[in-house]
Structures are given as structure tokens and as C-alpha cells.
Specification:
The structure is a homotetramer.
Chain A: E1 3-5, E2 9-21, E3 28-40, H1 43-48, H2 57-70, H3 76-90, E4 94-111, E5 114-135, E6 138-152, E7 177-187, H4 196-213, H5 219-233, E8 237-246, E9 249-251, E10 265-268, E11 273-282
Antiparallel strand pairs in A: 2-3, 3-4, 4-5, 5-6, 6-7, 7-8, 8-11, 9-10
Chain lengths: ~300, ~300, ~300, ~300
């Protein structure tokens, strides 16, 4: 049986690109981590080392820099679409390009109550993400966020679960629930002209509201309702995928010290953690095509 | 259009489990990071918070610990198969279980030239991995490694590549090539009785030999030949997937100082880096089924 | 020449403690990383393994948890003073105790414009720190912050520097200046009754103002003026120490592409980075005593 | 009371330098992380931004690269001494220079049992360190290692410790003991001509032997005996400082499952951990002078 080349792609990962807009005294900053990946008939490069069809990853990096000068970087989805189309349209051997972007937020500092023109501090840990694929089946955009660390100190139970001989966990009516959310939502239909910043703010806000206000019987339930609410609010979203560690906060046992601990002092544990993965899908929405391809390793 | 629950799984991630075998004075150590994930009809947990079919992740953790006492943990693939079958066979609502294992190596210390009975130091950064899936389509094993940092100081060129207006990279006949390899190979056919430790050592050795001895015209070419050689040597391997950052080592320009730098002093850069993903496939091998499912995010 | 035991201390590091105040529907959260260290005549433990004077680190951890229930954790300096005094006053062999605390900030989420009672998201990367030492020379408090990532896109030059045969850096009148600040300031005199939260907010605000408004000729100059301004505003502060990486943002060369880059597109580099360490001292202020001892390794 | 500039230094941190020796077909590799710091009368730079006495950190980086071409990098202590002396001797305003070096080990790969000429894999996590200071009080060398992860599965007890009302830890006669050792030893007297590689190998070997063979009553005791043994073997070593997390391995309670766990299955916990700091000193040895200055933050 023959051994053949399977799926492959190559590119430049984690180009750390900072764009300053300085058209007037009040500057703007956009801080990005850009990863580009190319697909096409690069078989000769793999099989024989023939580079004649290979656009070097160094050139991809240069292109990302130049595009940040000649095209808007805000919203990041438009920048990514433009850069991906450049690779596919302008570089003959490239059949499809995937651009993954992380956006780090900065907050303008205030001095004596007045916003400063050109100084910022890094905002929270949360990172906005985008994955743009342009190829033979069109243009796809997956918008998302990661590292949104969120916690509720009540309004969460976990009980009436299946037990077996290895069960030691006690059921609880009231616990701390915390996670570091990763969410990615795929937009179907026309991707040009979408108000990406509004959609991002809206989906983020809706998911936080559901996390906060839903009385949770399990993180699974909370995730589903977060995802469903996002799809209900934005008809352009075809599906959403959520990955959420259950960051355990264990109530410290104070009975040993003759005192009580009524949900007040917790040990925040590192590992192990629960890991819940869920998705919500709009029935009848256009198929994903290559939107998720290679999004986390080979297809 | 209705919004429905899509693919999902849940489990306990990163249970840090150390197993000491102390049957005689010479102890053995196995140091694992175990992640378990369950699949089945858990829709009620997501939709309504009904936990009656949910085996808590805490119980999964306990089971992993007990299994490490009552079943061999070496090779890790057999431990994973046994644990996965327990979940599927013994816990009614569970249709499929996925066990991911990282194994950290330890080297027995020598004192005055004699191996010590019960003291070790952690070996290199390299981690052996396994991903076992047991479900309705049978049992799958993906063996692998990650963080194998390997470098060659010559025997690598990069030239005759495609150029465009954004090209600045100079071609080279001789460069440092380095990567931190992630490789995963899927074994098809009967997974019981395989000599997993021998296969691991063999594939690792073959890949290192190819990296070292192939005169490389690109990292793409090197990866393909590493993967192909593994499949040629082990007919049970149906496919192999390789992800490799091109860890750039830039020759420092000494012309500015009136001296030469003939491949002697390099700056090892962090970011950005090339990222090459490739796979080799055995034509006609059994299909992967659920082997890769959720292996890197939702399917 | 005899070999003798030198300086030593022992304790429990990184107890991750979350305190919820739930006296009414609107909860409060305090999220801490607590490290305790004990000093005293523990020579027998080191020399002979005699533990009779050793309060185990596990007990120190328990004490930190109980103290978070029975004493306020806000401000962290008062919590640390109280816990340190407990060890010194209540545990006979302990001569001195050092408590180091990191405080992670959380922001209450807003739902429909209304602050939520019991849900928060983690705020920025910045961490508030405190190092409290209680011993024979009294009580010392060092307040601080770390990981305050701050950037200005103009108002920073670097030129007219010393040159030698290895100089390649070009002088510049206008560059991006960015750092991830670590600052620690020692409070002298009476440490009970200080308004720690006001001092923290004040020093942070003053340092940010100086970073933003001072036209910088070097990061060294900026740091000094940040430190001096803090001491000018708070007479209780005897000294301040600042450690600041110069996080280089390199202007990407666009001349190669026939276009311009007037301070607009930068590569944010990881390593190497400049590292500037500076301090401002109030002449005549009380001596530091043991305040800094072991604060970064052995004295 | 006046506010004055206190202790300060500045330099370039973490220059990642790889040196290949390619004098014949069998290459050699040295992989370093070099940090340089300068001390002197740089007050004008801090107070007024006057750079005329400041050798830029970029130039320091260039010098480190050139020195790696024109001077041996093995042993790292000699490279550091040479580079430090260059800064102090050749650059007028510099009074003292401190060079900190981390060395990452590589293992030559074997192909068919034969060592390969130009291919290596990264060795273990352990890092060799050196801190060289050259200034008005002469030349100092501190040799060391970090991240030496070492574990013994028996031969360690912890009992008969002090108890109080917060004690919950049970005494034990037999436990797993593990740490990730940081050790630094200061060499006094003449630093030129020392066989640094032999000393490093010797001290490392002695410390491992003591860890393995000493029946431990506490990590404190083990550390002291490791340090003392190093000083006994090497009269040039004036003192040694050890920092060691007690990486807890908790025996998993199997009584709940009707089975036993006689020291066989452990949970390796992340945080909190014990943290033991100790030192051994040779009485009458020459004073440290500036050897440790700024070694971990401001003096």
C-alpha cells in the first residue's frame, strides 16, 4: 500500500504587530498577534524540497506588516479578509489562506480625569480572536474570544448526579463557579459589511449575562444557554463552540478548627480541572466548508 | 430555524498521577498527566441541567487513580485502553470515552556509578503522548510525542523559493534548522497486544535519523520524509501527523564590526516562527473513525 | 575552616485563597496568592532533622485560610500584618514572619447597565503586591505592584548616547516606549492605621501620570521621575524600587517595499529586552531593617 | 528631607545566543541566555536624561555576540569574565559589570549507534547558571544550577513536628520527596584558571548523592547536607545558597474504595508548595563583596 502526502499547510505564526494611528495628536493603538497559513499544491516542496511554488513564511510576515499600513486593522476581521484575499488572488500557487488573529486590548490612561492622547495600559487577560479562511469555497469568518475569566460566587449547584463505586464528591446546592472561557462563533452568508465590533461586543455581553443570571445546575447547562442566546440574538451566526475549564474552588474545611466556613473561604485549585466542550448549531445554516479546517491541528 | 445542541464532551483534564512500583527495593516510577472525556446522550445535562446521566469529572479522576493501582500504567496505551473500556462498559450512559495521557520521563540517578534504587531526576523536555478512544466503532490508539526539540547546525538549505514584491529573505545554502516537534501516529487494526514501548522508541528513532541525515531543502521536505519513514517501518501505522515550528536561528551580521561570522554565532528568535503542518497517509488503511475526534477542539 | 549554617527561612508558597463576603445579596470577592515564611532558631531542623520547633508549612497554610475568615482581607496589608503577628506572637520558636501577598483584581460585571451582585470577570494583568515582615525590629510593610504593562506611542526619544566600535543603534527623536513595571515602596514609621488602599491608588496614579506626561529621554529618566514623584506625594514612603524591562517596539523597515512607515507599524519583540533597575530614597528616613530581607532570594 | 537616587543598574536581558563551532565535520553547540548589566555614575541619565555616559543596551547585546565569536564560550564562566572585563576596562564610564548566563544543554543524537556530527536534541530541563561580577573589588563568580527536578520515592520522613490548634497534617515515616532545586555557590580567591566544568559536574554530583542517600527527616535537613557536602569537597567555594520548593506528592486515599494504597499512587500537586531556603557558609572565607549584589533585585 502506497504512502502518500496527506493534508498540509504552512505559514508564519505569531507575528507581533503593533499599529499606531497618529493622524492627529490623539493616537490609536491596535496590538495584534497574526498567524498566516497557506494551502495549495505544495506537494513538490514536501516530496522533493522544490521551493518554486512556496511563498516563504518570511514574505508572509512582511505582507502582514505592509497590510497593516495600507489597510485598516480595525476591525481585525476586515484586515484578515483583506490579507487572505491578497495571498489567494495575488500569489498564483496559493489556493487558500487562513489568517488567525489575536487582539490584545489597551485602555487609555486618564490623567487628572482627562484621557491621555498617547498612553495606554494593557487591559484584562481576555483576548479577542478571529480566524479567516479564504479559498475555493469562499470566505469564512470565525469570531471569538479566549481567556475570559469569569466567576460567580453563588447561583450555582451540582447535585443529583450519577454515582458509582468511585464516587466521593458531595452534592452541593451552592458553590463557586468559575471558568476561563474560549468561544468561537462562525458567521455564515456575506462576510463583507458585517459590523464586527458590534457583534463582538454583543455576543460577549450576552454570554456574560447568561453566565451571571442563569441559576446553574452544571457548567454544561450554562454553556449551552450562553451559546443558544448568542445564536438567538445574531441570525448571521451559524454555530458557536465553547470550551470551558471548570476552575474548581474548594471550600476549605473549617470544622477541624471548631469554626464555620459558610461559603466564605475557598482554595482555588490549579489542576485537575473539569473540561466542558459544547456547541450550539443553527439548523439549516450553510455548511462550514473549510471554515474550521486546521483550526486546531490537522483536519 | 431551530437552534440545537451540537457536538459535546466533558471530562477531567490534567490529573497529575504518579505511580510508584515498590515491590522490591528497586522502585519504578511512572509520572502521568491524565485527561478523561466522556461522550454519550448527555443532552439533558446541557439543555435542562439534569445530571442523572452524568458521571462527575471528580469520579473520573478517582477512577483514573484507582486504575493506576489495579492495572499496569506501563505502557500508557494499555492503561488508557483499560480505563476507557471501564467507562464505556461499566457506566451505562457513556457511549464513548477518550483518554489522553502525557508521560513525563525520569532518569534514575547514579551514585558512584551505581544506579540508585529510589531516586530519579526529570529527563528532557520531550513528552510521550497517547490518545485512546473507545466507542461504538471500536478502540483507537494514537501514539505520539511533543516538545522534542531538535537542531542541526548544517545540512539544511532554503533557496529557489517563490518571490514577490514583499520578498526580503536571502536564499541560503547552509543554515541552522531547529524545531520543537509534535508528532501523532494512528495505529490501525488490533490495538491489543501491540508492543507500544518498542513502537514508540522505533518511531522516535526513525524520525530523528531522518531529521539528521536528510540533506534538507525545507522543513516541509524533512517532515514528510520523517513521517514516511515511520510508516514504512511500521505497517500498523495508518497515518502520522506532524506539526513543527521552524525555530529561526538568525546569523548575526558581523560585517558591521569588520569581522566575519561564518555560521558561528546565531540569535535564537522567539517569535514569529514558521509553522509547518504535514501528514503522511497509508493508502487503503482503515478509516480513522472517531480516533481524532475532539483531539484538538470540537470536531 | 568550619562550615556553618547560614541564613535560612522556610514556609508555604502560593496558597491560592479566595474570600467571598456574603453578608448580603451583594457579594464581595478578594482573590489572593499568599506566601508565608518563618525565621528563628531552626538550626536543629537543618543540622539534625529535629522538627520539634518547626511549625509545618501545612499548618501555615491552614492558618492563612482561617485568618481570612476571622480577619479582614481588605486591605491586604492589614491581613498580612495580623497573620504575621499571629505567627510571631503565638508560636514560640518563631522570631520573625514574612508574608508576601499577590492580589488579583476582579471587575463586577454589568447586566443591562446594572452591576451584578455576585458575578465578576478578572481585570487586567496588573497585580497588587505586599510584603509584610514582623520581627524583632518591628513591623515593616512594602507595598507594590507588578505586571503593569504601559506604553506611550510618542513623547520618548533616545539619542546622544555613548558609542563604541560595537554601536549599531540609530538615535531617535520619537519612539514607542513600553514596559511591564514592577514597583515596590517601603513605608516607614507606624504601619497600623495607614490607608493602604488610598496609598496604592495614589502611587499607581502618580507613576502613570509621570510615565505619560514626562517627555522621556530614556527609560532610566522616566523611572526616576516616577519614583521621586511617589515619594514627594507620600511622606511615609521611605524608598521605592523600580524594575522595568524596556519592551522594544521596532519600526518595520518599509523602504524595501517603496513605501513609508512614519511610526505606524511596529514589531513588538520578546527577547532580548533592556532591563532598567532604579530606586529613589528619602534621605534621613528610618533604615530598612529586615524589610527587604529574603525579598528576592537569600540576604 | 531630600529625595535622592538610590542603587541602580541597567543592561540587556536574555540575549539568546547560539554558538556553533564548526572547525571540522563534528560541530559543537553552545546555547546561552546572556544578561548584561552595567553600574557606574549614570546619575545624569536618571536625573536629567543625559545619555552621554550610557552605553546602550543594544551595544551590550552586540558585544555579547562578538565576544562569542572571538572568545571561547565554554566554560561559560570564562566567557562571562572576559565580557565583563571588556565593559569595565574598555568603556570609561562603566565601574562594574555583571554578566548572568543560563546554559541550555543539548545531547548529540546517535544514529545506528554512532554519534551524529551536527544534530542534537535538547537535554533535560536543568539549566546551568553563572553570575560574574567585575568591579572595583575584583572579579566574582557564582556558579549554579536551576530547575534540577529530583525525586525520591522512599527514604524520607516528616514527623515529630510542632503542633498547634491549626495542625491537620499527619506525621509520616515514609513519603515521596521531590523538589526543583536552585543552587548557587560563590567561589572565592583567584577566579582565573578554575576548572569550571569539573567543579560544576562535581557539585551537581555531590548534591544528587546527598539527596539520594541521606535518610531525610525534612527537606531542610537534606538541603543543609547537600550544601555542606559541596563545601567540603571544594575548598574554593565560600558559600552555597539553596532554594527548594517542596513539591508535594499526596497519597490518594483509597480507603473510600475498599482498597489499599501503600505508597503507590500519588497526586502531584501544583500549589501551594513548601519553600525552603538555606545556605552553608565557610567560616573565615573572603567576604562576598559585590558578588551577590542585585543578584535578585536591588541590593
Amino acid at each position: 500500500m502506497a504512502i502518500v502526502l496527506g493534508p498540509h499547510q504552512y505559514g508564519k505564526a505569531e507575528t507581533r504587530l503593533v499599529r499606531i494611528v497618529r493622524d492627529d495628536a490623539r493616537h490609536e493603538i491596535t496590538d495584534l498577534n497574526v498567524t498566516t497559513a497557506m494551502r495549495g499544491n505544495f506537494d513538490a516542496a514536501y516530496l522533493e524540497g522544490d521551493q518554486s511554488a512556496v511563498l516563504p513564511t518570511d514574505t508572509q510576515k512582511n505582507s502582514a506588516y505592509v497590510w497593516a499600513r495600507t489597510h485598516p486593522v480595525d476591525p481585525i476581521e476586515e484586515y484578515g479578509l483583506s490579507l487572505a484575499r491578497h495571498f489567494v488572488d495575488d500569489v498564483e500557487p496559493i489556493d487558500a489562506a487562513r489568517i488567525e488573529i489575536e487582539k490584545f486590548d489597551w485602555t487609555r490612561v486618564a490623567v487628572d480625569g482627562v484621557e491621555h492622547d498617547h498612553t495606554w495600559v494593557r487591559s484584562g487577560q481576555e483576548i479577542r480572536t478571529a480566524a479567516i479562511t479564504v479559498g475555493s469555497d469562499g470566505a469564512h469568518v470565525i469570531q471569538g474570544l479566549k481567556d475570559l475569566v469569569i466567576l460567580k460566587s453563588t447561583g450555582s449547584a451540582f447535585k443529583d448526579f450519577l454515582t458509582d463505586e468511585f464516587t466521593t464528591l458531595a452534592p452541593t446546592d451552592d458553590r463557586v463557579m468559575a471558568t476561563s472561557l474560549v468561544a468561537k462563533w462562525r458567521v455564515s452568508g456575506e462576510v463583507d459589511g458585517v459590523d464586527w465590533n458590534a457583534m463582538y461586543a454583543g455576543v460577549r455581553s450576552i454570554m456574560i449575562e447568561r453566565f451571571a443570571n442563569l441559576h446553574s445546575l452544571a457548567l454544561q447547562q450554562t454553556l449551552w444557554h450562553m451559546g443558544r442566546a448568542a445564536l438567538e440574538a445574531y441570525p448571521q451566526i451559524a454555530e458557536i463552540r465553547l470550551v470551558a475549564p471548570n476552575k474548581h474552588h474548594f471550600l476549605v474545611d473549617f470544622a477541624r478548627f471548631g469554626t464555620r466556613n459558610d461559603g466564605e473561604v475557598f482554595h482555588a485549585d490549579d489542576r485537575p480541572y473539569g473540561l466542558i466542550e459544547a456547541s450550539a448549531i443553527r439548523e439549516g445554516a450553510p455548511a462550514a466548508g473549510d471554515a474550521w479546517r486546521f483550526s486546531a491541528g490537522l483536519a
